[in-house]
Amino acid sequence: MSPCLHTAIIDLSGPDTVSYQYMCREADVAPPLATFQKTFRRERLMDCAAALMRSLQHIRAPAIVEAEMQQWGGRLYDELIPQELSDALRRDTGASNLIMYLDPACSWIPWELLWDGEEFLCRRFRLGRLLLKSGQELRAATERLRGERSGRGALIVFGDIAGLDARDEKTVVENNLNAVYGRSNVWFYPARGAADILDELKKDYQVCHFVGHGEFRVECPAQSGWRFADGSVLTCRDIEAVSSRAAFPFLIFANSCYSACPTIADAHAYVTTLYRAFLRKGVPHYIGTIVPIPDAPAKDFAHSFYGLLVQGLSVGEALGETRRAFAERTRVAIWGSYVHYGDPTLRLLGPSENHAAFRDTQSAGYAGSLRNNISFSILGKTGSDEIRRMLEQYKMAVAKNTGDGEAHYAIALCYLQLGLHELAIKNFKRALELMPDDADAYYYYGLSLLRGRRPKLLSLTEVKRIEEYLETALQLNNRPAKYYYLAAILKYDYYLSNGLLCHPSPDELLYLAEGKEYDAWEVERLLQTVRVRDPDLLSTIRKHEAVKL
Predict the structure, then answer these.
(1) Closest Cα to residue 261, out of 293, 222, 291?
(2) Which DSSP helix (H) or strand (E) runs through 288?
(3) What is the spatial distance between Cα 254 and Cα 251, in angstroms, rounded to a whole number?
(4) Which of 131, 163, 194 is the endpoint of a domain?
(5) Are residues 438 and 537 in the same domain?
(6) Would the pTM count as exceeding 0.85?
(7) Ordered DSSP codes for 465-476
(8) One domain for residues 116 and 174
(9) Between 20 and 30 A from 510 (CA), which of 152, 204, 448, 504?
(10) What is the dihedral of CA 307, 309, 313, 315, to 10 degrees?
């Protein structure tokens, strides 16, 4: 069943009344708007929202933070959502889109974090906000969406990065964007001051990623903005003052820590005010944070988001799937810290554009590899029809060059995702013949040899063979945590479950994985692929991963 598009126009029709106009569109069927109202207690809303903000910033075990947020998010939901609207939203169990058109007077409410008794809204839906805009703002954003693009790729901007580990974030974002736009079409700008960056923002980039501190001024929100190394601030007033014809970025992702906001209303006002300033200049998408977030998880969150975006997922899909992936993996609830203003259904790239971009970078001498464009984690979120189209492309590459190890590797990954284990094994074997020093190929070959079975059900000979390939992968590259996780699963679910001794033990392997490199999506794909149903083992791996984040 194809995802639905839910839309809700939300405004305050009185000091204690919220009104909704709601519609759920399925395919081309658009039923009439349904209208609902509910009275609320503003003081209670403020108290619950403030408690949610505190929970977002707690550094505790994920389960404790999640329970706190469910409590306060549930109270907000009960206070704001009418029963009829609740019933309509909860009937949708798929990953559908939800667009909230918000009266600016209620944009401070953390709608993303409302808990319906089963899930948070931003994890049930691919949720995007849009403000009920004036005609001028709407025209500017519409013209930007429809206008011809210059072809400029991405801009990475450093503001005031004092106390931040910005270089690592720059590296992971740059690597993802290079795979689409090419190295020559991704710019890095370590701006000294606000005037410098304003000129650069007007040059029609597709994407702008900002890293640095922000500044929010309660007494004058128009003076809020991004702070730079010389102490100057690119304010909302500066942005709105631009009267020359300029093309601001299509998507702005601001991974910024702002100066202290005393209330959640002020925290949302910081993001909303900046979004509205950029919106007036035609920027249709703005992603920002409502609470300060630690460097490491912020970097990993951005890495996951861009990794999905450049594969052709919509902005809402990329952000929504990243939220879900990080929901149980960090000691801070980073998944709830981001707000997206824009249409969640929009795609910067279609799958075909992504493959074309890759071919262009290859012909231009870009020293990338197929795994910049295909990975097991991404395939897990790709439809089978699209995977089969990708397979045909890689088969054509093999037909032109039978010695193309990268193409055999990509084909094998596609077959592994489709559950065609014998074909995956055949192609991984050929890839290893052509690329005998590729650690990931040994890892995935071992994963394929499970053939979709639970490790406990394998023979000792099969387990030993998989362990040999894992050992080779670790000898070639001992940094990826997923290698240790698979080895620990084998020890636990085959050796210990069958009453056998083993060395090293699963706990020793998990200890060795501490501090190693990992991709949250890759680990999740591993846990979904290996048929382990022991909740304690799964919980241990996920908690272990959370500590590292």
Answers:
(1) 291
(2) strand 285-289
(3) 10
(4) 131
(5) yes
(6) no
(7) HHHHHHHHHHHH
(8) no
(9) 448
(10) 140
